[in-house]
């Protein structure tokens, strides 16, 4: 994932980020299925690796946002 894409993801709302993560997981599942079925051009193991890494980065950002939200609620109490 490019740094500019990562910055855009950091500015997303939590619900939009969850939606994007789900879409990426579906895409990655499609890559796995295509590889298993032997679809031409589906031997791209690097593409699966990159997609998995992108999902991990998005999930990390999501968790950071959730923690910040929890801390801001606690500080208001």
Automatic annotation (TrEMBL):
Gene3D superfamilies: 1.10.287.310. InterPro entries: Ribosomal_uL29, Ribosomal_uL29_sf. GO terms for cellular component: ribonucleoprotein complex; ribosome. Keywords: Ribonucleoprotein, Ribosomal protein. It comes from the Bacteria. The keyword Ribosomal protein applies. It holds the Pfam family Ribosomal_L29. GO terms for biological process: translation. One of its GO terms (molecular function) is structural constituent of ribosome. Belongs to the universal ribosomal protein uL29 family. This is Large ribosomal subunit protein uL29. The lineage of its organism: Bacteria, Candidatus Daviesiibacteriota.
């Amino acid at each position: 994932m490019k740094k500019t894409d990562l910055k855009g993801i950091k500015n997303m709302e939590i619900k939009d980020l969850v939606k994007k993560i789900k879409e990426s997981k579906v895409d990655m599942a499609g890559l796995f299925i295509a590889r298993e079925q032997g679809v031409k051009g589906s031997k791209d193991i690097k593409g699966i690796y990159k997609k998995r890494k992108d999902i991990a980065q998005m999930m990390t950002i999501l968790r950071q946002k959730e923690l910040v939200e929890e801390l801001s609620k606690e500080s208001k109490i």
